[in-house]
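RECORD TYPE: protein structure
NAME: N-acetyltransferase domain-containing protein
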Amino acid sequence: MEKEYELIDNEERHQYEFHVEKYTPKIEYIKSKNGEIYLTHTEVPPQLGGKGIGSQLVEKALKDIEKQGLRLVPLCPFVAGYIHKNPEWKRIVLRGVHIG
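PREDICTED:
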């Protein structure tokens, strides 16, 4: 069973993050003034790789984005790949943005 981590929206650093032991897996973002959020980069320290932490981070970030009513532009290949595998999340992607 995967451990559940608490999602932190670190607005000062423009990133969603988890605090796992001494590490900080994160998804960097840019929020526009007109209700869009661009997820630009996902980073999970190599010491935490293979534990599903990146996927959990993406899922919790998507839930938060949906709760805020923002439209998503997934520029990060990891986030786009997650949405490709979980197409129900296309509902929050900005219209006209294609996920390959």
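COMMENT: The two ends are 30 Å apart (CA to CA).
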